[in-house]
Amino acid sequence: MKKYYPIKRGFLKKTVAYVKAVDDVSLYVNEGETFGLVGESGCGKSTLGKSLLRAIEPSGGSIRFRDRHDELVDVMDLDYKGLRDIRRNMQMVFQDPYSSLNPRMTVLNIIGEPLICNKIARGEELRERVKYLMEVVGLNSRHLERYPHAFSGGQRQRIGIARALATNPKFLVCDEAVSALDVSIQAQIINLFQDLQNEFNLSYLFISHDLGVIQHISDRVGVMYVGKMVEMASTEELFANPKHPYTEALLSAKPIPNPRLKKERIILRGEVANPANPPSGCYFHPRCPYAQEICKQQAPEFKEISSGHHVACHLANELELKGAVGI
Ligand SMILES: Nc1ncnc2c1ncn2[C@@H]1O[C@H](COP(=O)(O)OP(=O)(O)OP(=O)(O)O)[C@@H](O)[C@H]1O
């Protein structure tokens, strides 16, 4: 997958450069699995999530999706109608439960909208389906004529989840879906995601900058840096045995529940690289505490170093990195 945003300048809006927001990233999500995508702000997580659903048009790559008839669909090949059909299978849950719900629509219309648009239900059938969805996500179905402002942040996120579930999808992209919520509410919504996954055999691409959330919910994790995937492994392996210095630095910044366990935080030098003008070689080298000459000159390959564990670092086999403390 690639997504390059053009940078346009001048009166004629000429393209002068590209922001390589997602640059040659590959991943798969198994049925019933949660793939956690983590990385600092601006590294391309949202762009990747939206590109997978073709909510924004990728610049290149391929997307293969096994639909409910067990057929492998090439999503990049679909026309407008094909895309509308496949979107019933693939939905998105957004970050902000305040701005993503139309304040002038009732819950019935918000949750029912995908059913109306896809001509799946209307009238009494629609009402019944919305009531069912409200109960599935833990809302009182008698409140279906209420407006979003009558609900708390956590309840609004439940409305957003019910809307995403309306067309009975197989795959959800959850983009910072719990980040705007208080910690206690976050835990409830994460539990809801897990219950729904078990009940409906859902697959998630779960995007978050919060490693605690990612560790809790994911089966496998991908770490992105400046539009590239730099490490990918099972959750257990990634947290216990990171192989990329960037992952190590992220893990060192993760709060630990036990205050008696001491840990050293790795403070990275400088800022995240600019994806419109990235450094030479490994994009992480100007901030990497272990960087060598080769890192400045050559981009590392994204290689499998043990079963299911991929990393893009020249020094992956040499460094003894620290995993998360207290896991
Ligand atoms: N529409 C756009 N036009 C130009 N550049 C964009 C556009 N959307 C995003 N970008 C740039 O693409 C890069 C990746 O952004 P993206 O939002 O995907 O990152 P992210 O990891 O999801 O960050 P965040 O968590 O802050 O949303 C950033 O440098 C961003 O400025």
From TrEMBL:
GO terms assigned for molecular function: ATP binding; ATP hydrolysis activity
Residues in ABC transporter domain copies: 7-251
GO BP: any one term: peptide transport
Keyword terms, alphabetized: ATP-binding, Nucleotide-binding, Transport
Classification via InterPro entries: AAA+_ATPase, ABC_transp_ATP-bind, ABC_transporter-like_ATP-bd, ABC_transporter-like_CS, Oligopep_ABC_C, P-loop_NTPase
Annotated family: Belongs to the ABC transporter superfamily.
NCBIfam families named among the record's database cross-references: oligo_HPY (TIGR01727)
Protein name: Peptide ABC transporter ATP-binding protein
Source organism: Metabacillus litoralis
